[in-house]
Amino acid sequence: MSEEIFDIVDENGVPTGETVTRAKAHAKGIHHRTVHIWVIRYNEGIAEVLLQKRALTKDSFPGQYDTSSAGHIQAGDEPLESAIRELSEELGIFATENQLHLIGTFPIKYEKEFHGKVFKDNEIAFVYTYEEPVDIDKLIIQKEELDSVAWFNLNEVYEACLPPRDKRFCVPMEGLELIKRYIEEEN
Predict the structure, then answer these.
(1) C-beta atoms surrounding 29 within 10 Å
(2) Are 83 and 37 in contact, with CB atoms under 8 Å apart?
(3) Which of 19, 59, 64, 88 yields a CA-CA distance of 20 to 30 A from 142?
(4) pTM to 2 decimal places
């Protein structure tokens, strides 16, 4: 498999015309784009989100619960087409453009060590919701990316991610805040 290539972007997520490899982007902290898709359902009126448990081989946050589906936007691709691709690849959900709703963006910037190697992240995340019915027993999960999926009460996940953070979760707080605000406005 050839190495992934990303568009280098400005602070608003607009491509600059330059590209970078995935390895270089994370070694040097070069600004690039990702998509985060939140699969949502309501169980007796309570908002629940599908979270994926990241594979132990992942280069960041192995074995922790994260956003339903997420991934990098490849050079030349648009956020929506990337969101559709990620849902399909990671979970076997074949969404249409009309089933995904952009609810905002947020920056992610950190430097941490995983597997004995420094990982620098500097990205702008485009956040989408998917609210169609999902039977997790029928999902086809991408074993290279994730170990499993489970439904969680959104408010409980939010509380668990407040300091001191529950180490089971690596869900970005900014993403949780976006999804909580979206659900509150919709209901």
Answers:
(1) 17
(2) yes
(3) 19
(4) 0.94
